[in-house]
Amino acid sequence: MNISQNPSPNYPIFSDENFINPFMDNFDFTDLIFDVNEGGNNNGFIPEETSSPISIVSSETFTGESGGSGSGITTSSKKEPTFGCKSRGSKDGETKEMGHRVAFRTRSKIDVMDDGYKWRKYGKKSVKNNTNKRNYYKCSNEGCTVKKRVERDGEDAAYVITTYDGVHNHESPSHVYYNDMVLSYDHDNWNQHSLLQAIQQISPPY
DNA sequence: CGGCTTTGACCAGCGC
DNA sequence: GCGCTGGTCAAAGCCG
């Protein structure tokens, strides 16, 4: 379980054929929960569509201090996600815009999708309604406060739920690969764009 | 030796 | 007010 430790600087998930590719048979984007910055409610909500490799089940903008706070994600997913977000130091009700939250539910044999960023694990916890442990990661890049949670779906361990909190304040070299992928992958094109939109929420173009 | 993971403890929010 | 739960911290150990 060391996949967050990307041995290659070349961000293999979308570019290295030796790595798990999201569009291979054993890896499906089943749900995509992404923040579309619509002011904190579900204006961007699109109901789950099980016929598609990617389903957008929820979106949210949240406010608060570093690490996230305030509202939890609302979702139409069959399984109640545990995205409630609490943070020390946010009790005074600050409403400072903090960032975005993006969540994927994917069918994958691996626990941690390598998304091109370098992550450092800082916690692991068993959560309610899930026999599997949830892993907590921070972006290793200096000054970047983006966090990521990774857990296996409690109802179907074949699925991995990955949640990103915040926006990277540094460049992601993988950005190029995502764009290349879209350009070279036409069928189900809207799905690629959905994924791209989500990823680009947390990887601002530099 | 440096960077990382592991893991138990601690803290804060929420529901009852 | 109390207990439960999720999120984070930090020390210790591991690994390249």
TrEMBL record:
List, alphabetically, the Gene3D superfamilies matched: WRKY domain
| One Pfam family per UniProt | WRKY
Q: Which InterPro entries match?
A: WRKY_dom (IPR003657), WRKY_dom_sf (IPR036576), WRKY_plant (IPR044810)
Q: Which GO terms describe its cellular component?
A: nucleus
- Where does the WRKY domain start and stop, copy by copy? 108-173
Keywords of the record, alphabetical order, are: DNA-binding, Nucleus, Transcription, Transcription regulation
Q: Where is this region: Disordered?
A: 60-98
Extract one GO molecular function annotation from the record.
Answer: sequence-specific DNA binding
Q: Where is the composition biased (Basic and acidic residues)?
A: 89-98
- Tell me where it resides: Nucleus
Is-annotated flag, keyword RNA-binding?
A: no
Q: Which protein, by its recorded name, is this?
A: WRKY domain-containing protein
